[in-house]
Specification:
The complex is a heterodimer of chains A (114) and B (110).
Chain A lengths: L4 E3 L2 E4 L5 E6 L6 E7 L6 E7 L2 E4 L8 E4 L6 E5 L8 E8 L8 E2 L3 E5 L1
Parallel strand pairs in A: 2-11
Antiparallel strand pairs in A: 1-3, 3-8, 4-5, 4-9, 5-6, 7-8, 9-10, 9-11
Chain B lengths: L8 E5 L4 E6 L7 E8 L6 E6 L4 E2 L4 E4 L5 E6 L8 E9 L11 E6 L1
Parallel strand pairs in B: 1-9
Antiparallel strand pairs in B: 2-7, 3-4, 3-8, 5-6, 6-7, 8-9
């Protein structure tokens, strides 16, 4: 079946602009995660949704970052007033909670802030 | 979650077994060992996980020492497509967020 999809695959923006990154999880997966991966490093947790609610947002770096999942499926990560340091690959993952913590990752959105 | 230590890089000849070590000396009794890998320009991929018993699936085997302070991921017959960064992650029961370290970059040589 279809895996996790993320759009756009690449996004170039200018410093100070607002961006939205979209994640379509695997159908039926109740848990959804966002991670950020800087060049040469491992992914870094940002936020986790169980259904529509953010169960853990401890990884969001500051209040410029916000994520929603209004209907419990698609999620959008929103970044306000982008900074050059926000440049990274943003990864989304989903999991069927009943199977524990196996997370299925999408290909990521590569964000470049000029 | 307990911290993990992995060698930064390893080489393996195609067709041979790749043995990737991980040290997690501060692991607690309720923490699982997970392995993911990340092929270049792709998202991480789950490989295997275990608590204290050795585990095997179609991708790999996981050997956990009796004291659980270290583990080894074994790819029995490495292929060029196994070239990737391999992450060993310790995760407490009930916790969701994966904490990735720097991983081991495995290069499978023809």
């Amino acid at each position: 079946g279809a895996g996790v999809s993320q759009t756009p695959s690449n996004k170039v923006t200018e410093k100070g602009k607002y961006v939205e990154l979209r994640c379509d999880p695997i159908s039926g997966h109740t848990a959804l995660y966002w991670y950020r991966q800087s060049l040469g490093q491992g992914p870094e947790f940002l936020i986790y949704f169980q259904g529509t609610g953010a169960a853990d947002d401890s990884g969001l770096p500051n209040d410029r970052f916000f994520a929603v999942r209004p209907e419990g499926s698609v999620s959008t990560l929103k970044i306000q007033r982008t900074e050059r340091g926000d440049s990274a690959v943003y990864l989304c993952a989903s999991s069927p909670s009943r199977q524990g913590e196996t997370q299925y990752f999408g290909p990521g959105t590569r964000l470049l802030v000029l | 979650d307990a911290k993990t230590t992995q060698p930064p890089s390893m080489d393996c000849a195609e067709g041979r077994a790749a043995n990737l070590p991980c040290n997690h000396s501060t692991i607690s009794g309720n923490e699982y060992v997970y392995w993911y890998r990340q092929i270049h320009s792709q998202g991480p991929q789950y490989i295997i996980h275990g608590l204290k018993n050795n585990e095997t699936n179609e991708m790999a085997s996981l050997i956990i020492t009796e004291d659980r302070k270290s583990s080894t991921l074994i790819l029995p017959h490495a292929t060029l497509r196994d070239t990737a960064v391999y992450y060993c992650i310790v995760l407490r029961t009930g916790r969701r967020a994966l904490t990735f370290g720097s991983g081991t970059r495995l290069q499978v040589q023809p």
